[in-house]
Every structure is written in structure tokens, then in C-alpha cells.
Design goal:
- By secondary structure, the chain is mostly helical.
- It folds into 2 domains: about 30 residues, no CATH class; about 375 residues, no CATH class.
- About 60% of the residues lie in helices and about 5% in strands.
- It is built from 19 helices and 6 strands.
- The strands form 3 sheets. It has a two-stranded antiparallel sheet.
- It is found in: Endomembrane system.
- InterPro entries: Azg-like, NCS2.
- GO terms for molecular function: purine nucleobase transmembrane transporter activity.
Length: about 475
């Protein structure tokens, strides 16, 4: 591709060949060992369709590492959040690493998609402060052992819906304009989260958000990382996102924002939370059904929205459908069940998977790489403090290393918004609520719910209700009920 000096190069991923199968090859020295290595590489290529999807072995591994960098913060944050419910933080850290690694590996092997799974942010707060919160604070008053049981049951129901293909029918019912809105909304939400983590956007008393303090050192580190990473992306440097994270990490250490406390450390025991589920206590609680239903709905729609977003971004959609969708959903459901058994909140598909896709990841090998790094994280958690948060005030933590990656990922996903038929108000208005609903509420589920409600209501009020699937009308009513209960 050529461009004049006054034009900016378009940001594109390697195009996927149509009807042409390419195979990844790596030059190796002759010999028996080389032949064995080539056989392994050949098997990986065929199993994961690496060449057919326009990728290479090295690119997949690099993409997996990039995804890990953007979500490694959960290893540090999740124990802190669930610790507020009285859980042992060391055990939660191990449960987070093991549960995320196994669920991500499952998605890589069975769904063969470049997605990562881990305990969801938001879902862990719901676990700690709503399920385990007191009635005086609007909580359900469950113990953390009972909340783990509710998480496990939600996972079982989620898996059942996957096996009976209920979720596939649900996804097929989603109108195309809303699908484009979901992808764009996720991208905008990722970018807003990145801007907040960088300290470039902050909450203000008089308006919803305002500019951050550019004089703050963490903000400056994030800006340096953003500029460097953006330049690397524009110049098409392989591994740009990962290199940019390295620059931000080095700057964070250099300015003393994070401290080097070592590399390797033995992980704590998982026994305090392992198999600690309390089903008897849960079933005795009057709110247990509502708790399970809310967990199920949030996990289901978060997963649906994330998979639509990342597979569309990767160019992996087949006739408008997610490839091996049932396997992807089953991996998510199995991860939630596993989380309940190990001792962590709902495990769900991560929007940070888009980071690996932006780095060129196209296959399940990306997920396997991320899974391996997640498993190693419980041994290298001292090193993760470099990627972790930098407290700057009461209740305020910035993530200057991961933030630039999220901002750029959001930018990469925004072209999807152009596919919404903005000249058709009946489609454009619901899609708009999806696009803005996600970043404004920091919730994929809330954005999807707003879009479904608007789609159903506008079609009914305009006399076109029969043109809409009964599934969408039913879901719109369900979301109205859910929003009222919240």
C-alpha cells in the first residue's frame, strides 16, 4: 500500500484470504529434530487454521501475550474486590489465575477463537457488594460461600442454554443494526475505560466527565505510552501494542510509580476458598432465585456482546454468525462453574481480547498463549505490580501501562459505527442507545438492554411490532424488569 506524504496510512489487519489456504512455515535446520518440530508446527497450523486465517505462529503467540498484558490487572484487582466480602485474598488470586487459564484454554481448543476469559470486572463488584452486601446497603445479604453457590448454579444454567442452542437462537434474533451498534459501543466503552485508566478523563462535580490533571505523573506516563504506541501502530511495527506497554512499564518504574519487588514467588494456598460453596444456606435465602437470574442475564449478554465485537473485529464472522459459537459459550459457562468451585466470581469473556486481535491474533493459539501466561501469573505476581494500578487518591487508581492499549483498541473498533443505517430512524435510534449506553454505564449488558427496549418500543408504537421477533420483544420486557429491580 502506498500513500502520499500528506495522507495517513489506514490501520488495517492482514486481509483474510478467500478460498485460499495459506500455511505458516518457519525455517529450521535439517535433522530429525527439525522434522519433528516441523510436524508439530504443521499440526498446529491445521488444527487452529493459522494459515487459513491469514496469520502466523509468531503473530499468534505475540497476540496472546498482548491480550495478557491488557488483562493481567485482574490478577491483582480481583482479590482486592472479593476480599471486601471476607474472602481470603491469596486464595482468590490463585483461583483467578487457574480459573481464567483453564477457561481461556477451553475457548482456544474447542472454540478456536482468540478470546480470553477471566473473572469479570463489574461482576466481581456485584458479587462482593450486592450479593454479599447487607440489606441496609441494598444487598442480598448472602455470605460469600452462598454467593459462590449462586455463581455455580448460574454457570450450570448458562451451560444448559448453550447445549440446547438457546443462545444461538437469541443471537440470530438480534437485528443487524444493533449488532453493528454493539461492536461500536464496545469499542467506545473500551476507549473510555482506557481514558479513565490513563487519568485523561475524570469525574467532575458539575458535569459527567472532565479532563484529567496533565501534571500528574501517572497521566504523563500513560500519555507517553499512548504516543509511542500510536506511532508504532502507524508505522506498522509488529508487536506495537506489546512494545508500547513495555515502554509504559519502564517509564512507570523509572518515575517510581511502581516498585520492582521481585520476579518469582510461591503462590498462596487455594484451600480457603476451594469447594467452599454453601448450597444449603443459599436455598434458605429468600433472594436466591433473583441472585441467580441476575448473574445469568448479565453473564449471558456480556458474553454475547463481547463475542460479537471481537469476532467481527477479527473478520472471523461466517455469514454473520460467530464460528463455533456454542463451544465459545460453553467455555464461558464452564468457566463460571469452575470459578464457583475454585473460589472466584463469574468468569466471562473479556473485551480485552480485542487487544490480541488488534495485534494480529486470529486463532485459538492466541487464547492458549494467554492461558499459559495467566497460569504462570500466580508465580510471577510480584512482577505484575508493574502492570498494576497506581493509587492517586481516595478510591482512585490509574493503570498507565494498560490504558494506552485500551484507547487504541477502542479506536480500531469504531469503523463499525459507519455500518449503522443512520438515515433510518427506526434502526438508528436504538443503535444509538446501544453505542452510547455501554460507555456511559460501563456495562455491555446495559447498552444491549437499552437497544432492545428502544427497538421493541419504537416498532410497536410505529405500528411495525409484527416485524420484530418475539424473542426481542420478550427480552425487552425482561430488561425493563431487570432495570427496575436494579
Amino acid at each position: 500500500m502506498k500513500w502520499s506524504g500528506s495522507e495517513e496510512p489506514a490501520i488495517r489487519e492482514p486481509a483474510l484470504s478467500r478460498g485460499v489456504t495459506r500455511h505458516c512455515t518457519i525455517a529450521r535446520p535439517a535433522g530429525a529434530g527439525a522434522e519433528g518440530g516441523d510436524a508439530v508446527i504443521g499440526w498446529l497450523d491445521r488444527f487452529f487454521e493459522i494459515g487459513a486465517r491469514g496469520s502466523t505462529l509468531g503473530r499468534e503467540v505475540l497476540a496472546g501475550a498482548t491480550t495478557w498484558v491488557t488483562l493481567a490487572y485482574i490478577v491483582l484487582v480481583n482479590p482486592i474486590v472479593l476480599g471486601a466480602a471476607g474472602m481470603d485474598t491469596g486464595a482468590v488470586m490463585v483461583a483467578t489465575c487457574v480459573g481464567a487459564a483453564l477457561a481461556t484454554a477451553s475457548a482456544g481448543v474447542f472454540a478456536r477463537l482468540p478470546v480470553a476469559l477471566a473473572p469479570g470486572m463489574g461482576l466481581n463488584f456485584f458479587f462482593a457488594f450486592t450479593l454479599c452486601g447487607t440489606a441496609a446497603t441494598g444487598g442480598f445479604g448472602l455470605s460469600w460461600q452462598q454467593a459462590l453457590a449462586a455463581t455455580f448454579i448460574a454457570g450450570v444454567l448458562f451451560l444448559a442454554s448453550s447445549l440446547f442452542k438457546l443462545r444461538s437462537k437469541l443471537m440470530d434474533a438480534v437485528p443487524e443494526p444493533l449488532r453493528h451498534g454493539i461492536v461500536a459501543g464496545i469499542g467506545l466503552m473500551i476507549a473510555v475505560i482506557g481514558l479513565r485508566w490513563a487519568g485523561l478523563l475524570v469525574a467532575t462535580p458539575n458535569i459527567y466527565i472532565g479532563p484529567g490533571d496533565l501534571g500528574a505523573r501517572p497521566v504523563q506516563v500513560a500519555l507517553v505510552g499512548l504516543i509511542v504506541t500510536a506511532i508504532l501502530v502507524i508505522r506498522r511495527v509488529p508487536g506495537a501494542l506489546l512494545i508500547g506497554a513495555g515502554v509504559s512499564g519502564a517509564a512507570s518504574l523509572g518515575f517510581g510509580l511502581t516498585q520492582f519487588t521481585g520476579v518469582v514467588s510461591a503462590p498462596p494456598s487455594i484451600l480457603p476458598t476451594f469447594l467452599a460453596l454453601d448450597f444449603g444456606g443459599l436455598f434458605a435465602a429468600p433472594t436466591w432465585i433473583l441472585a441467580v437470574v441476575m448473574l445469568l442475564i448479565v453473564d449471558m449478554f456480556d458474553t454475547m456482546g463481547t463475542l460479537l465485537g471481537v469476532t467481527s473485529r477479527a473478520g472471523l464472522m461466517e455469514d454473520g454468525q460467530i464460528p463455533r459459537a456454542e463451544a465459545a459459550f460453553a467455555s464461558d459457562a464452564g468457566g463460571t462453574m469452575l470459578g464457583g468451585l475454585l473460589g472466584t466470581s463469574t468468569i466471562t469473556t473479556y473485551i480485552e481480547s480485542a487487544a490480541g486481535i488488534a495485534a494480529g491474533g486470529r486463532t485459538g493459539l492466541t487464547a492458549l498463549t494467554t492461558a499459559g501466561l495467566l497460569l504462570c501469573s500466580m508465580f510471577f505476581h510480584p512482577l505484575l505490580s508493574v502492570i498494576g494500578g497506581v493509587p492517586i487518591g481516595e478510591g482512585i487508581t490509574l493503570y498507565p501501562v494498560a490504558a494506552p492499549i485500551l484507547i487504541l483498541i477502542g479506536i480500531f473498533m469504531m469503523p463499525e459505527v459507519a455500518k449503522v443505517p443512520w438515515d433510518r430512524p427506526l434502526a438508528a435510534i436504538p443503535a444509538f442507545f446501544v453505542v452510547v449506553g455501554m460507555p456511559l454505564t460501563t456495562s455491555i449488558t446495559n447498552g444491549i438492554g437499552a437497544g432492545f427496549i428502544a427497538w421493541s418500543a419504537l416498532h410497536l408504537l410505529s405500528g411495525k411490532g409484527r416485524d420484530v421477533s418475539l424473542v426481542i420483544h420478550a427480552l425487552a420486557g425482561l430488561f425493563v424488569l431487570l432495570f427496575l429491580l436494579e
